[in-house]
């Protein structure tokens, strides 16, 4: 895959700046003394097939590894980061947990909270997962998480609602998207669902406008310097502001949740009350859990975020990266690594795809993907000239949160375009 990746641009700088010399020293194995081993495992699949998948996967691993038990805790996605940070800071972190990557992972590495997996990933696993997917979970060449899913963003849509509105092709440009919004309004459905109550889904719109307005060099430079002085950052906010003025979103989008219940943004698409939603590639599984029969939406389609004229971004660039799982620095080293290698196996990864309806990282497992929308996701990801991780992930907790809140304030009319960038620069100066 010939692409420039920004998945780790900020993390290496953060670690270098900290002068880190011994991050993530392993905790060793309790079985060295002949005893049983118990681990804790946190994930964000709180309902449905995803929750069942992890329960069955853990049971299979325990059966194959006598003496090892894993206590599972499923945590709602919006609650996970906060609870995890509290647990890490208190020294009571779970042994295995979902890893977002970027600046958030770099902060954990700086604090010595993660196990260095570099020598614990088996050759078999390395042969099943692309080098690019591992790089998304590396800092200075060291691996701190096992990649599990490829999750770039784009626009999910109802093909039936598009047809009813006379839309024959997915929008390729911003003008096309504006025209689709107008056509869909004429049919009485919400053109685009947005769960701005959770902040980050609203911020995704700004991320993509920034990807179109700013050059890859500018995006990489900002990730390193944590300064946002290039005019493209304000341009992106102004483009978003102009788009919001066309009223493309569902009524009450500022108080709508993203993924919880039929009234969420995903639920509006699942029940044909809205035609589109901008979201990562985990969305089909979420949507499927919210349809009336709790099955995948049969008319679901996907297209990349439209091109925006006048910007310096490379056409075809895409946002979103690779989710993974980390081991705590205090986890039993060998057993934790064994579990991470286990979840990378082809049969387990095929089960992940079927449960979550999302693209797995295992290249053999990717071969069984049937849905055209997931094939389109992988095609766009693999051909993208530039791939950026989610901006709030790159910039870390404080700056990322300031960005997300700033975008919501823009959508609510409480802040102008320049004010969004000012809020991010202020947060960066304090971090």
From TrEMBL:
**Signal peptide span:** 1-22
Q: Which residues form a coiled coil?
A: none
Keywords linked to the UniProt accession: Signal
Pfam families, per this entry? SBP_bac_1 (PF01547)
Could you tell me the superkingdom of the organism this chain comes from? Bacteria
Q: Note whether Lyase occurs among the keywords.
A: no
Q: Which PROSITE patterns match?
A: PROKAR_LIPOPROTEIN
SUPFAM superfamilies the UniProt entry points to: Periplasmic binding protein-like II
* Protein name, UniProt field: Sugar ABC transporter substrate-binding protein
